[in-house]
Amino acid sequence: MTVLEIIATVVIALGALVMLAGAAGVVRFPDFYSRLHAAGKADTLGQGLILLGLAIPIGLSLISFKIALIILFIFIFNPTATHALARGAWTLGLKPWEKHQGEPRTDDEDDDHGEEDHA
Amino acid sequence: MRTEKSPVIRYVALRAVPFIQLYALYVLGHGEDGPGGGFQGGVIFASSFVLMALVYGYGTGRKGAPEKITDILAPAGCVLYAGIGLICLLMGGAFLEYGRLAGEGASEAAKHSAHHFGLIGIEAGVMITVTASMITLFFEMARDAHVDHGQDDDDGEDDDA
Known about the structure:
B: 5 helices
């Protein structure tokens, strides 16, 4: 393996690790917003790192330029999509998770928002 | 339930539209020698109008692709497809035999480029029809939901395109 290929392997492995952390977050976090928090950030960085690792051994060429464009668009549109999802959930009345969810609530207006997370 | 408009989504969506449309043309152009083609390109092209309608409201999205224009474009794509095929017939070949577009007794190289030209031509016809059909499908279905919920269009104050 050349030096570039070793660097690329390390970068791709880093990206895979970040994606794994994001996947663990999606499974382990209690509600929609915190899962979105894990998925949105980890996917953006993980995909970026994996694509960067794919581009490194190619060097400067049309293909690596296209990969750079994909990374740029992922870094713009992925957070925007996450933002839109979280905003949509908030608009529809999904309440964020609280630690003492089992206890009876005192404020009555929570009843109109049915989307409770029982995870 | 109305909330404040998100400046982030509006800003990014508006600036994403030209890139989506450019990418649709890229997919169209690479249909010959890679994944892609007229149908996929058309769907991607139509998705830019769907994005505008989702973010800026039904009316603003429909303004970009008025009913008059999509109603003409949907059959026009079919006419382009069939027209290229019929021209091949008129030139003495079989239906969609693009090589004949180069003319009688043309060189192999000319036939080859005529083949590419014809292929891109019919793919463009497919793309035009698919784009117009997808836009029509989306807006016809969205119109009912639009009426049911009585949502007003947020014809943007900040339409700075």
